Amino acid sequence: MLLGYFSFVALFLLFLFWVKKNRLFQLGKLSWKFSFVALFLKISAGFALWFIYTYYYTNRMNADIYKYYDDALHLFNSTQKNWPLRFELLFGFQNDSTLFPILKDTQFWYSSSEIFFNDNRTMTRIHLAILHFSGGLYSFHVLFFAILSFIGSCGIFQFFRKSSNLSDSILFAFCFLVPSFLFWNSAPLKETVLIFGLGLLLFGIANISEIKSFRNFTLLTLGILTLLSLKIYILFALVPGLWFWTTSLNKSKVKIRMRYIGIHILMALFLFSSKASTILADKQAQFKTLIQETNASSAIAISPFDSFWSLLITIPQALFNVLVRPIYPTTWNSLSLLSAAEHLFLISILILPLIWKKATSITEQRLVLFCISFVLVSSCVIGLTVPVLGGIVRYKAPLLPFYLLAIFTVVDLSKISPKLS
Questions:
Q1: 18: how many CB neighbours lie within 10 A of its CB?
Q2: Chain centroid to CA 27: how far?
Q3: Which stretches of 164-307 are DSSP H helices?
Q4: What is the per-residue pLDDT for 114?
């Protein structure tokens, strides 16, 4: 445990030093104080979630912040005298059949929802690697994941800033101050690593358009690999928007819109293919089974689908569940009340472009269309597969900065308040 306290202080101080040295963390024209405030908020949110799921929701087996840590701790203790075996577990070279005596005591190593990679194992391996420095001090894991989230959020900020005319302070609010985004994406959860990968991917793309360097290609590759091994649906949802983004530069407004429509028609054809619809239907069925096993209190209705037409009919319900349904939770408590208030605000601001719409440049239009694509495609996937309101709120949290950017980019903020322009 002494190792953990030493590592905690060392990591915190070293990262503070790195923040001041790396341009990724320079948030536009904002002072360095904003970077340190953002890091403090990430760490605070990580520990807040840890506190809630340790002292308020006390069922450790159902707490995602502990699931993969506990499995990693078991593997760590079981391989204390067998470092070659631990190496195999860390890097995925293990033979599960020969290691069954060790793996049988894990709770989440095996996953029925695996598509290309088992994201449960990805999370377990991350915790297993961290245990070499934390000595079992869970606070070190919270700090590590909060740092990953901070890095990813900075990457998203830099991507926005390359094309947006919104002020740095507004972009800061989108990337660091949105409650759900901050709360669910700063703790030892899959969504935190997702934000890390998403930020690196977008930061790499933004920089490659200017400088095709090894560093930028490395960031791009690391971002893709992170999303591929953890939340492949996010990578899938990014494809049409990024395809449009990278091929619409220096095009006229008419060609931009035609390209956008054409790409998303192709995307729709893929989404409605038998293979894709089968994967989505299987994911929905797995969630419904999980609801029955855990007696989830926030379960909501979502229609099953097994054909092109049933999937097409279900999409409006899926989008409604993701974008609107959280304003009236199935059960009321402090968290659901805060979430409902936040979503009421998110829905109410949709009226702003109708009242104070502004003319946008081609660059801004490309950015808005990219954000709309990412939000809607992701919302379709989430809404079609997740029949649990709590899960929807959590899984859609990474989309919120893009949702806000798409709306406020087309709003004439000077008419609301001169200080916002």
A1: 13
A2: 20
A3: 168-176, 179-184, 190-208, 214-230, 232-247, 253-271, 274-294
A4: 55
- Provide the pLDDT for residue 178: 95
Hey, what amino acid is at 72?
A
- Of 378, 271, 398, residue with least CA distance to 322: 378
Q: Residues 182, 183, 188, 193: what is their CA dihedral angle, to the nearest 10 degrees?
A: -40
Answer positive or negative: Cα dihedral of 60, 392, 47, 204. positive
Q: How confident is the model at residue 421 (pLDDT cuts 50, 70, 90)?
A: low
Going by the DSSP 8-state scheme, the letter that residue 209 receives in this structure is: T
Query: Which residue type sits at 247?
Result: T
Q: How many residues does the chain have?
A: 421
Do 25 and 35 touch, CB atoms closer than 8 A? yes
How far lies 157's CA from each of 102, 284, 328, 401, in Å? Answer: 43, 33, 31, 9
Say what the pLDDT of residue 62 is. 74
Alpha-carbon span 191 to 180, nearest angstrom: 12
Provide the percentage of residues in the chain whose pLDDT is more than 90: 46
Q: Helix or strand or coil: residue 299?
A: strand
Distances (CA, A) of 343 to 37, 72, 167, 284: 25, 36, 24, 24
Distance CA 385, CA 379 (A): 10
Rg (CA), the chain: 22
Closest CA to 116 of 268, 263, 224: 224
How many angstroms separate the CA atoms of 11 and 18, rounded? 10
CA distance 241 to 159: 14
How far from chain centre, in Å, is Cα 175? 12
* Three-state DSSP state, 20: helix
> What is the pLDDT, as a whole number, of residue 312?
84
What tokens does 166 get?
A: 């919104």
Across the chain, mean pLDDT equals 87
Question: What digits encode the pLDDT tens for the residues 3-50?
Answer: 888 999 999 999 999 998 888 899 989 998 999 999 999 999 999 999
DSSP state string for 353-364: HHHSB----HHH
Interatomic CA distance for residues 179 and 166, integer angstroms = 20
Q: Are 396 and 385 in contact (CB under 8 A)?
A: no
Q: Which of 115-129, 232-246, 260-274 has the highest mean pLDDT?
A: 232-246
Q: Please name the residues in contact with 256: beta carbons below 8 A apart, sequence gap of 6 or more.
A: 248, 362, 365, 366, 369
